[in-house]
Amino acid sequence: MATNETSTGTRPAREPHPVRGTALKFDLQAEAAALVQEPTWRAHGHNAKTLVKHPDFRVVLIALKAGARVSEHKTDHCVTIHALEGRLRLHVPGYPALELGQGELLALEQTVVHDIEAVADSLFLLSLGWSGNGEAKT
């Protein structure tokens, strides 16, 4: 099943791509290069593309300009944040700021409130997994 990412309403429609399948392969450098060429990146300092979307698992490639933030939020599922480029700072209440550099991975349990700040232009993979009891709520 293919989808266009237009969740913000400001992003132009992308060419559909498969988000489900037995084996999906991605060139992350090419995907990242495309993300930072879109008007959403230039105008807002962030952009994202869902690469994989199964009923119980999702992978999203996210690009953030230095100083851009993903505001405080929580999810009902476990998440990992894998820094591919740049430097990220995560704020989790009750913990000192957590910094992630290239090649580092952070795993968060369900319902952990957090925000993400790009210390430098950054690219990361957000993976979400939940039980097969239902679709994601995000």
Give structural notes.
With 138 residues, this protein is mainly beta. The chain has a domain at 46-133: Jelly Rolls (Sandwich), CATH 2.60.120. It has two helices and eleven strands, in the order E-E-H-H-E-E-E-E-E-E-E-E-E. Strands 3-4-11-6-9 form a five-stranded antiparallel sheet. A four-stranded antiparallel sheet has the order 5-10-7-8, with no helix packed on it. Strand 7 (87-91) and strand 8 (98-101) form a beta hairpin. 15% of the residues are buried. Residues 1-9 have low confidence and may be disordered.
Number-wise, the strands total 11
Largest sheet: 5 strands, antiparallel
Task: Give the structural class.
Answer: mainly beta
What is the radius of gyration computed over CA atoms, rounded to a whole number of angstroms? 15 Å
Contiguous runs where pLDDT drops below 50 for at least 5 residues: 1-9
Number of helices: 2
Question: What structural keywords apply?
Answer:
single chain, 138 residues, mainly beta, Jelly Rolls, 5-stranded antiparallel sheet, 4-stranded antiparallel sheet, disordered N terminus
In short:
The chain contains two helices and eleven strands; from the N terminus they run E-E-H-H-E-E-E-E-E-E-E-E-E. The protein has 138 residues and is mainly beta.
Topology:
Layout: E1 2-3, E2 17-18, H1 28-35, H2 39-44, E3 46-54, E4 57-64, E5 69-73, E6 78-85, E7 87-91, E8 98-101, E9 105-108, E10 114-118, E11 122-129
